[in-house]
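for the writeup, i need someone to sanity check this before i put it in the appendix. the sequnce is what the collaborator sent (i think, or maybe the updated version? ugh). structure was predicted straight from it, no edits. if anything looks off just tell me and ill rerun, i have time this weekend
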Amino acid sequence: MTSTSEPEWVLMIPFITAPGFPLKESHTVTLGGLHAEVRPAAFDYTQITIDGIRSAQAAFDLFESMRIGMLIASLNINWGIRVLPNVRILESDSPMPNEPDVPLIYPKGKNLRRLVGHVGVIQKNPDKVLPKLLESLEIGLKLASARKAMTDNLVKLAIELYVDTYFETSDSARFIGFVGVLEVLKDKDSSSDAATALIDKWRQEASILTHEEADSIQSSLANLKSISISRGIGSVVKRHLGQDRVKEARDLYTARSSLVHYGIRPTDSADTVRRTQKLVTELLAHIFMVGSR
């Protein structure tokens, strides 16, 4: 009597980075106890392939953890790693998609035919970056608090904005992107009872205005029932990084407001980007460690 064993599955994850990741040859590694290969792929992409997975569902769960690991790598290496959030599950007779950026789950032994292209421009030293990347992926596989943090839609959005910032080329765009992460993560506590009562009084008095003007002013006043963006940013930074970082965070938000509203650029744009990047990286890293915003 012969038994038919279940097929093993393979997880393939293409990703692209900024700065670039000039991997020139394949590296065989172990991730989460499974055999994996990291190699250069088409159109400036790098590809991680993991085989020996017991089921398509297990491969899907592995993809979710690996994606978190890649986000952690963005924090550890100070770069952006883009990987599509949805993985496609193929059967043995399913055609391969032509898009080079689609993560895939498929049965081991499936014939792979997809687009081919050139390897990307050399920008980073892979000998230094690859160990940190693999370390980060292992953290993504094991760190339950990071998975918990990623159940918060605002944390998801913040880390996506963080990664996207590395694909911007100007200091101004990167600065606005990093401060945008702080805005997404800010606390949204209510104003004091006294302030709320005063706002309600002003809203009532605004009813003597024309209908359109009254609606506009009352809407603006209603927004004052929550603490300001600057205070909200200071609050979340204080909780995760301590009181001594609050002034820095607020000053950076003020600099962003001057840039966006008046076109006034920071005196040293490169240093301002560096300081903002450091603050945001540390904030996100701590959120991943504790598991909540």
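Residues 191 and 225 are 5 Å apart (CA to CA). The two ends are 56 Å apart (CA to CA).
thx in advance!!
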